[in-house]
Design a protein that fits this description.
Structural class: mainly alpha
Shape: flat
Strand content: under 5%
Number of strands: 0
Number of helices: 3
Radius of gyration: 18 Å
Order of helices and strands: HHH
Largest sheet: none
Oligomer: single chain
Helix content: 55-70%
Distance between the termini: 45 Å
């Protein structure tokens, strides 16, 4: 794996930057999707699992992108402060 698996592409670089957001927020999207699919639809079990998985992945990234753009909420939820850009003189 060291020889063949140690590669970086644009896609893997993007995924590595966004993986923390997916880790933080995927369960909220997964739970909400599973709840609403169970309560308000007549979807079969396999379809519910697939739709919940897609919702967890997409919803996790969307929630992270939304929350990281609001400074106060970003600090409260994620604990990150916006990086200041240093001006060289």
């Amino acid at each position: 794996m060291k020889r063949w698996g140690n590669r970086t592409s644009r896609k893997t670089a993007w995924l590595s930057k966004k993986s923390y957001g997916l880790y933080l927020f995927h369960y909220l999207a997964l739970s909400a999707a599973a709840y609403f699919l169970d309560r308000y639809t007549k979807v079969t079990g396999v379809a519910a699992y697939l739709l919940s998985g897609i919702a967890a992945y997409a919803g996790g990234y969307l929630l992270y992108e939304l929350i990281k753009r609001i400074p106060v909420i970003r600090w409260c939820v994620i604990g990150e402060k916006k990086e200041r850009k240093h001006v060289q003189r």
